[in-house]
Amino acid sequence: MASSLLLRPRAVLPHHPSSSSSSRRPLPAPRVQLQPIIQQKPGLAARSDGERRRPAGTRLYSLAPYPLLLAALLPGAEPVTAVFAPFVELVKTWDLPGWLVHWGHPGNMAVVLFAMGGYGTYLGFRIKLSDDIEEKAKAKDLHPKLLAGMFFFFALGATGGITALLTSDKPIFESPHAVTGVIGLALLTVQSILPKLFEGNPGLRTTHGLLGSGIMTLFLIHAALGLQLGISF
Questions:
Q1: What is the rounded average pLDDT for all residues in the chain?
Q2: How far is residue 51's CA from residue 47's CA, in Å, rounded to a whole number?
């Protein structure tokens, strides 16, 4: 409980006759009344009946705080909101259906992730494992194009996600979905640079393959966090 009851006895002495009387009656034992004393425990916010207990200074339903390193990757919400404000106001005048504003971004990004990212990753493995020279040549041609397209549409989709949140008057950059999105785009940038260094260091091919698999895993987590975020609104 947020508070506890302590019982403190208080003696109540009865009125007795004047001391001038020659014979005094023995005083009865004092009556004891139990008085509740409310002591507020530190660290707990005051609450009304039925309200959920929570530490003082925290927001109800707020997500767990991120590590400082991850949170530092995100720009401030206020300048980004100011940049997007004119476009957000324009989108609001279009009077789009609520379901489209809410689920348009997740739907588009799911197509990009599984169609372009998934098939592009498959082609990357075929480049490494296939013995068919013709198949390997086609994969080498298509693999970088698909992954470059995935990077472009993910970057474009990030602006769409921010616009959707601001159009719905929701906060931005306050969820693990936003953090994983920034990390994923940063890793995709590194991934796109590695092939240019293969000639000088062939061992980077293995790093490129492992990093690509890790990026796809991260974006699957990103998608799950996005679905959770969409359902919570």
A1: 76
A2: 6
Q: How far apart, in whole angstroms, are the C-alpha atoms of residue 182 and residue 186?
A: 6
Which helix (H) or strand (E) covers residue 38, if one does? strand 31-40
The C-alpha atoms of residue 100 and residue 195 are separated, in whole angstroms, by 38
Write down the pLDDT at residue 232: 85
Separation in Å, CA 49 to CA 52, 53, 73: 9, 10, 40
Return the structure tokens found at 90.
Answer: 């324009």
Fold of 98-232: Four Helix Bundle (Hemerythrin (Met), subunit A) (1.20.120)
If one counts every other C-beta atom within 10 angstroms of the C-beta of residue 140, the result is 14
Residue environment code for 196-208, b if the CB has 16+ CB neighbours within 10 A, otherwise e: eeeeeeeebeeeb
Residue range 97-109: average pLDDT? 90
> Which residue's entry shows tokens 């390193």?
69
Distance, C-alpha 163 to centroid of its chain:
17
Opening angle at CA 116, ends 184 and 152, nearest 5? 55
Q: pTM to 2 decimals?
A: 0.64
Q: In the chain, what are the domain boundaries?
A: 98-232
165-184 average pLDDT score: 88
Distance CA 48, CA 154 (A): 45
